[in-house]
Amino acid sequence: MKKEVINEPSLKKAGLRNKSETTFDYVSKAYSPDVYKFYKGKTFFIRTYGCQANVRDEETMKGMLLNMGALEGTDIESDIVIINTCAVRENAEDKVYGELGILKNIYQTKKKVITCVCGCMVEQPEILDKILETFPYISVVFGTHEIKDFIDLIYESGTENTQIVAVNSKPGEVVEGLAVSRNSKYKAYVNIMYGCDKFCTYCIVPYTRGKERSRKYEDIILECQDLIDNGYQEIMLLGQNVNAYGNDLKEGYDFADLLEGVAKLGIPRLRFTTSHPWNFNDRMIDIIASYPNIMPFIHLPVQSGSDQILQRMGRRYTKAEYLELVAKMREKIPNLALSTDIIVGFPNESDDDFNETLDLVDKVKYDAAFTFIFSPRKGTPAAKMEDKITKEEKSARFQELVKHLEVSISASAQRMVGNTYKVLVDGISKHNPEYLSGYTESNKLVHFKGGLRNIGKIIDVKITESHTYSLIGEIVNE
Length: 478
Ligand code: SAH
Ligand code: SF4
Ligand code: F3S
Prior knowledge:
5-stranded mixed beta barrel, 22 strands, 14 helices
């Protein structure tokens, strides 16, 4: 196979931030008949790891492939296989290496498969080298900024039997007008911004996703209106840091304005993620409180309860400031549910630091939480910090943290028993095919029996039983 390198990743370039304004690229792409012929009837399969940003990228790639006449395949034995990767922690990367191993076997028996690797992992030079060395049969590698071009890249690779590497590390622009084929008919992800400028010292995302850049208010509103017109029940506004929305636009819009604008369109359920505790202003809280269709659920990653660790993480708030913000939110937003992300075992986290985290968790009483053991990411400042804490100590702390979190998570589930809640029905429960499942406004997962006609509707469910991470209920007036 020939090789062509269009661009190679560079962490240095990826971390540059220019002061220039966000640039917008309104794409309207035409392809030659040969390109359509190439795709027509080919099956494709996309495996996505990582966060909602990657899921939304998958939906874009799916939309673009379907527009070319390709067909969605059911498994990894399809004609075109795309592995959409995540680099946020080592275990996310390990899953991808496992998947590439499976692909290698397929490649040895069915040579015509076109394999592509995209997403956040390939944005890191050393990881890309490792991928290409271990799995040399890969047809196309493309980065997070290249999605708009991947149809051409796969075509070129497939017709010229060339391995293509196209990963252009750059701050990035806002690309509008790409196709989309959504995974759900009822719930939709809407990007409001891309990238991140916070550079928390442990995090690779600002390097893999480029600078913080916002979509225009009008473009977001158009997408949301279109979703409502098509019967969607829930919109989740996406950004690594949604309360920074609009800062780069100089158009006078901020996240509070956007939330209000979308809420006013009348979508039954509006959610957003992720909000950074820093810069979450009072107006945002007031808007959430005053629109019943903005769900009373905030994912507010704290990462640690120790001021010293927070400072070394570059998080820009103290434990006291975080607690104050939580108190203000709880005071203004009735029945607010809170979830969080916490990292255990940040370099040289002491017992005292860890106890501060436990104390914070006990005080906030979260309704849900994601916990992680610190995973050094090459190229980030934290990866170079001295770390004397052993693996065993980190796992012991992890277990203890989960125990503390589960106290409030179980209690919040327990409190719901006997009450009736609005649930948006997602479909057949993944745990038991005799049940349906869906989420309450406060984002609790509920399993209940009922007819398939309920799928995609918001219905009343009475909670009969609670578990730590899910609830059992029955439909009211079925
Ligand atoms: N932008 C979002 C989160 C992006 S990553 C935010 O700021 O909240 C999701 C979560 O992964 C983070 O909140 C953090 O808890 C975790 N994470 C990120 N980098 C990590 C690392 N190097 N090791 C362990 N956990 C990490
Ligand atoms: Fe990573 Fe911090 Fe940006 Fe979140 S805010 S994506 S944790 S750098
Ligand atoms: Fe992973 Fe990239 Fe998202 S690193 S968490 S897929 S932004």
